[in-house]
Design a protein that fits this description.
mainly alpha
Length: 346
């Protein structure tokens, strides 16, 4: 894929303009976005991603367009998992609803910068050491195993990481929010605000998630340009998705299991690809293993859509059944309690 410097700079400039406009809108009037507003923004971002995929198809071919769509869907599905942790962070720090949009916006910008660094590092490592695909594949399979073991999580507690604990110990903070300010003066001293800690929590948490998502998308495409744009489109609509499906996340009871299957599939694909283009001297004399299948991107894209579709439908069916069963039990419990109360005292 031959991406000219002009295309790179135009893409980066467009992303900066979009993020700057988003920041200006949020900073001008911090508020709780309505469902209509979130839906409108989300439709725009998803439409832009779909159109960008068509542009890739037209300019570079269907193979690369399939890689972009597969990468974008994977990053988007992993971002949905991030949202649950974001909800816990907001609840843990008791962030006022009208300030949550601003915190998310800054946290997402930090995440984009950190992921860009990870993408550049990943591209450099892959170009220098092709055997890293074995490590990426094994890591994704191990991560999938961890997610599958966790299953449906009922843990609503957020545990702060070491960096947050260090910052809270080292730097005194105010006990109340001062709007969107990161620093405030109290008693003649300049202190950090809870907003500063919340943004740091959001940014560092997404960095931890990037440890899974970046190897996953490199399992679908080796083109840094597609990796970057897929991440940009996935993250730019994350703020609206947070407010739009906050309640729906509780109903995606099989999300962890679905993501485990998805990561395991990509991990196996990475290892098969590494074997197909083997360059390890102790394995087959460093020659490619031609008998090993190399999963095409069309199969990968179809598998991703199928896994995410089955996960969503199965989750909604189970959560609907669970909700339908709850009201049916309550009247019976009340009737039993009433019968017991009506028994005569002998």
């Amino acid at each position: 894929m031959d991406v000219t410097p002009l295309v790179w700079w135009v893409t980066i400039a467009a992303a900066i303009v979009a993020l700057t406009a988003d920041v200006a809108i949020v900073a001008r009037k911090p508020h709780i976005p309505s469902m209509r507003e979130c839906t409108a923004y989300l439709v725009v971002y998803v439409s832009l991603a779909l159109l960008f995929g068509l542009f890739v198809w037209w300019d570079f071919g269907g193979q690369y367009a399939g890689e972009f769509y597969a990468g974008w869907l994977t990053e988007y599905s992993l971002s949905v998992d991030n949202l649950f942790v974001f909800l816990l962070i907001m609840a843990n720090f008791r962030v006022p609803e009208r300030l949550q949009q601003s915190a998310l916006m800054v946290g997402i910008i930090i995440a984009i910068i950190l992921r860009a660094l990870f993408i550049a590092l990943g591209a450099a490592v892959i170009n220098s050491y092709a055997w890293v695909f074995y490590i990426f594949g094994a890591f994704l399979i191990w991560t999938a195993w961890k997610l599958a073991r966790e299953g449906e999580s009922d843990d609503d507690d957020y545990e702060e990481n070491a960096l947050l604990k260090f910052v809270e110990r080292r730097f005194p903070a105010t006990s109340t929010f001062h709007g969107t300010k990161l620093l405030a003066r109290e008693g003649g001293k300049r202190l950090i605000t809870p907003m500063f800690i919340v943004i740091l929590a959001l940014g560092t948490t997404d960095l931890l998630f990037a440890l899974d998502s970046i190897p996953a998308i490199y399992g679908l495409t080796k083109e840094p340009y597609l990796v970057l744009t897929a991440n940009l489109f996935a993250l730019m609509g994350l703020r609206q998705l947070y407010f739009l499906i906050g309640g729906l996340l509780k109903r995606l009871v099989y999300l962890s299991l679905g993501l485990a299957v998805l990561l395991a599939f990509i991990g196996v694909k990475l290892i098969l690809h590494a074997l197909h283009e083997n360059n390890l001297p102790f394995l087959n004399g460093g020659k490619p293993l031609h008998g090993v299948p190399d999963i095409p991107i069309s199969v990968s894209l179809g598998a991703i859509v199928l896994i995410l579709g089955v996960t969503t439908v199965a989750s909604l069916i189970k959560s609907s059944r669970d909700r339908a069963d709850e009201p049916a039990e309550m009247p019976q419990e009340r009737m039993v309690a009433a019968d017991e109360d009506d028994q005569p005292v002998l």
